[in-house]
Amino acid sequence: MATQTRPRAQRAAPPEPPSEELTVAECWRRLSWHSTGRLALATDDGVDIFPVTYLVHDHSIVLRSAPGRKMLQLARHGDAAFEIDGRGRGRAWSVVARGRAVRMNLDSDILDSGVRELPALHHGEKFNYVKLTPEVVSGREFRVFTGSVPLIALAIVVGSAALILGAASIWLGR
Amino acid sequence: MSEPHVRDLSEAECWTDLRHAQLGRLAVSVRNEPDVFPINFVAHEGALYFRTAPGSKLLELTVNERVAFEIDSWTYGEARSVVVKGVAERLELQSEIDEADRLPLLPWIPTPKYRWVRIVPTFVRGVAFERAAEPARY
């Protein structure tokens, strides 16, 4: 498939999307506001992604994960990407932190991080604590297309109906 | 200790959630370095479709066609997450592109985008967590 990628017809290059890059400080601010995100890990057959709860401690992202596959993958490939996003007031944004994720083994580290205070996704036992120390943190904010097309269509339909009714009443009133 | 209130979603429930969602996160991995991109998508006939401009996302998809995709939703009482793992492929046939152009996709950004990508799932899993406080440990 990859060899058949020649574009069929050259189209104009797309204009830059109306987005702005967030500063690193702003990315960290948003990271510290939130408590749920997604962790992506490389696996033997590609990549996997998991919803997690987390907190920010000492410029690291500390998260809890249930025992199992996630940990096995971390043992094999330490590289991870962590993402949070949000939207509101006509804007959407996303922050991604990439770096190495390691399992926290020392009880003192776990206690210091405050991760035990993290609200859990569920009441399952979770004995694994993971610390992601980002090498790269980046974020973007977009103006969002809010889907006003149906409203515009409705306005056109209502407007046309009013015009037709108006014309008809003038015609009938003659 | 009480049983964890975690429930696996059936495949049908996963697809219902996928059909009702607009925003998901696409994870790709190039040379074992994962990255995540938020995207708007649409689920259609057992596959996921999204559009992208030629750029890093598409490049990475070309390098490594195996991807993972996640949606989640949070309410006061429950958190749900669906993960799809699969193969990403660019739509090349004009008939497929025309069909995709008719899908009700609402892009994140109003900018026209020029490439359709389809994720053909090889694996779908979903889970619902009842949200509650963590039991004591230590």
Keywords for this structure?
heterodimer, A: 174 residues, alpha+beta, Pnp Oxidase, Chain A, six-stranded antiparallel beta barrel, 40% strand, disordered N terminus, B: 138 residues, eight-stranded antiparallel beta sheet, 3 helices, 8 strands, globular
Structure description:
The complex is a heterodimer of chains A (about 170) and B (about 140). By secondary structure, chain A is of the alpha+beta class. Chain A has one domain (about 20-145): Electron Transport, Fmn-binding Protein, Chain A (Pnp Oxidase, Chain A, Roll). In chain A, about 30% of the residues lie in helices and about 40% in strands. Chain A is built from four helices and seven strands; from the N terminus they run E-H-E-E-E-H-E-E-H-E-H. Chain A has a six-stranded antiparallel β-barrel with strand order 2-3-4-7-6-5. The longest helix of chain A is centred in the last third of the chain and has 25 residues, at about 150-174. By secondary structure, chain B is an alpha+beta fold. Helix content of chain B is about 20%, strand content about 50%. Chain B contains three helices and eight strands, in the order βαββββαββαβ. Chain B has helices at about 10-20, 55-65, 95-100; strands spanning about 5-10, 25-30, 35-40, 40-45, 45-50, 65-75, 80-90, 115-130. In chain B, strands 1, 2, 3, 4, 5, 6, 7 and 8 form an eight-stranded antiparallel β-sheet that branches. In chain B, strand 4 and strand 5 (about 45-50) form a beta hairpin. Chain B starts with 5 loop residues before the first strand and ends in an 8-residue tail after the last strand. The model of chain B is unreliable at about 135-138 (pLDDT under 50). At the A-B interface, strand 2, strand 3, strand 5 and strand 6 of A face strand 2, strand 3, strand 6 and strand 7 of B.
